[in-house]
Design a protein that fits this description.
Elements lengths: L11 E4 L2 E6 L2 E4 L1 H7 L3 H14 L1 H26 L3 H8 L3 H20 L1 E11 L4 E11 L2 E9 L10 H18 L5 E7 L6 E6 H21 L10
Parallel strand pairs: 6-7
Antiparallel strand pairs: 1-2, 2-3, 4-5, 5-6, 7-8
Length: 236
């Protein structure tokens, strides 16, 4: 890891391998960058085939639109989770794309608002032991349990076999929370929002998170083999 000056803990930095985070005089690769750079060949091939089929220009347009709408929806969820409904309304009402997602997610969100407390959102965290960092979407207390949530959006149905990395990502968040904040997650959920149907929810137990983190460590090991940063722990 490289030392940096004039940065604050949690600041983003950009390296050859993608986005990293500054913490305590070190640069840690972000979870998303780690998973992107170690994507299995089968997924790389599927992505390349899709881009070839639709063309680079259209593919880029689709990706940009998805990122833009997803970002606005995340901003809405952040305000909603904090019960800052005035800010949430300011995002929702002028934005028809966000309104479409809300129409499908309304029942889920109303239940979420009525059954959760002690909300933390968009908190940058890191693992010095394993050499990575990231920003989780949301953590709440529900039924006396600490629940970690990861928000996703999609313009088409996501089959379970397509989203392995989502499980690795949330497991990495859970480990970093325990290591650097002393917060032990009891369970987690990945919530995939759609503009055309109710959200899909994938739940993970504490054992599931432990199992997925072991798989994440293998990807992390591969990342450090591809990009040998000056990290004494080698990231695993």
């Amino acid at each position: 890891m490289k030392n940096k000056t004039n940065l604050k803990n949690g600041d983003h930095v950009w390296e050859e391998w993608g986005r990293g985070y500054y913490f305590e005089d070190n640069i840690y690769p972000g979870i998303s960058s780690i998973l992107s750079k170690t994507m299995p060949e089968s997924k790389k091939k599927a992505l390349a085939n899709w881009r070839a089929r639709v063309g680079d220009a259209i593919a880029e347009e689709i990706c940009n639109e998805a990122r833009s709408t997803g970002g606005r929806w995340h901003n809405f969820l952040d305000s909603f989770a904090k019960k800052d409904y005035i800010s949430a309304q300011r995002i929702l009402f002028p934005d028809t794309d966000v309104q479409d997602y809300y129409a499908q997610a309304k029942d889920f969100l109303l239940k979420f608002a009525s059954t959760t407390s002690d909300v933390l959102t968009e908190l940058p965290i890191y693992s010095h032991k394993h050499g990575y960092a990231g920003t989780f979407d949301c953590m709440v207390t529900a039924g006396g349990k600490k629940v970690l949530l990861d928000w996703k959006t999609s313009m088409k149905i996501k089959k379970r076999e397509w989203i392995d990395d989502y499980f690795l990502q949330i497991a990495a968040y859970a480990h970093a929370l325990r290591e650097t904040k002393g917060i032990a997650v009891d369970r987690a959920s990945i919530v995939i929002f759609y503009s055309f149907q109710e959200p899909d929810i994938y739940k993970l137990s504490k054992d599931d998170l432990t199992e997925q983190f072991e798989i994440f460590k293998e990807r992390l090991k591969l990342f450090y083999e591809l990009f040998p940063l000056s990290n004494e722990n080698k990231g695993y």
